[in-house]
Amino acid sequence: MCKKAALSRGVCAQVRAGPVFSATATRLTHTVEPDAFIELDKVSFAYGSRRILDGVSLRIARGKLAAIMGGSGSGKTTLLRLISGQVKPDSGRVWVDGQDVAKLNTAGLYAMRRRMGMLFQFGALFTDLSVQDNVAFPLREHTGLPDTMIRDLVLMKLQAVGLRGAAGLMPAELSGGMARRVALARAIALDPDLMLYDEPFTGLDPIALGTIAALIKRLNDALGATAVMVTHDVHVSLNVVDEVYFVADGKIVASGTPDQVRHSADPFVRQFVDGQPDGPVRLHYPAEDYASQLGLGGRHG
Ligand SMILES: Nc1ncnc2c1ncn2[C@@H]1O[C@H](COP(=O)(O)OP(=O)(O)OP(=O)(O)O)[C@@H](O)[C@H]1O
């Protein structure tokens, strides 16, 4: 049975047939609330000796759209990599739909990723493929559907982002906002259960940005997908997400609904909501003492 809005009603059952998060995969018993789709439990992670995340716990309920915000280099993308199994925690656990991601073997990870749609900065379309071939790509890779059915699915996805008429164009012929919408159509091609967005609004003008944000919300609701969105665009995201997590110093320092965020007195939250350059989030990447690096000894003149 397809999810709610059945963007691809009638065919999605075939698209989704296969061992995605299969019953045969290891399903470890884990006492989380039944509607938790993503759960991080005391996750710590370092690149080499550099600690990025330090005991992060969060829980995103099935069907919710959560934003992750934080200063540059605070580890937001790393969180997405942990959820998609691209990196493993040094300690703690990452659960996606009840599965311990770090324990999945290659086949298990492949099956899980088939259930994920990802939209990264700038969309990254294949420049030598037309719009329709870009959207068809995951369908050709992951399903054995006949060409006619793939064509219809592609048209449905493009219709969902308002670009059915652009099916025959090449990426070079698209505006930035159109390209992002095509990338979104491609990301939802397999009717994902989980959508990961890494700064999906980067480089867009305000109108295109608002369009993408509204589409993300609408498509997510239609798919019934759970989604995690790393973003710096506080005000736009507060209009579309269900909850926000703020990351700083390797930890979740605040979280709440958009309303709670808007009215929060927490200094981290205020810095983001009000766009203050000064605050708990530091501008500077950690560095050795400036004066001594300049050879000024103890003087700080
Ligand atoms: N593959 C890697 N190897 C070593 N260090 C890395 C690697 N990827 C990221 N880092 C470092 O880890 C830190 C966290 O990176 P991450 O990309 O998660 O941050 P972010 O919060 O998404 O940042 P931004 O908002 O600037 O994109 C950064 O300081 C970055 O330099």
From TrEMBL:
Keyword Nucleotide-binding annotated: yes
Top-level lineage group: Bacteria
Family annotation (InterPro entries): AAA+_ATPase (IPR003593), ABC_transporter-like_ATP-bd (IPR003439), ABC_transporter-like_CS (IPR017871), P-loop_NTPase (IPR027417)
GO MF term (any one): ATP binding
Residues spanning the signal sequence: none
Domain ABC transporter: residue ranges: 38-274
Keyword Cell membrane: yes
Coiled coil: none
Record's keyword terms, sorted: ATP-binding, Cell membrane, Membrane, Nucleotide-binding, Transport
SUPFAM superfamilies: P-loop containing nucleoside triphosphate hydrolases
Database matches in SMART domains: AAA
Alphabetized PANTHER family for the sequence: INTERMEMBRANE PHOSPHOLIPID TRANSPORT SYSTEM ATP-BINDING PROTEIN MLAF, PROTEIN TRIGALACTOSYLDIACYLGLYCEROL 3, CHLOROPLASTIC
Name of protein: Phospholipid/cholesterol/gamma-HCH transport system ATP-binding protein
Native organism: Rivihabitans pingtungensis
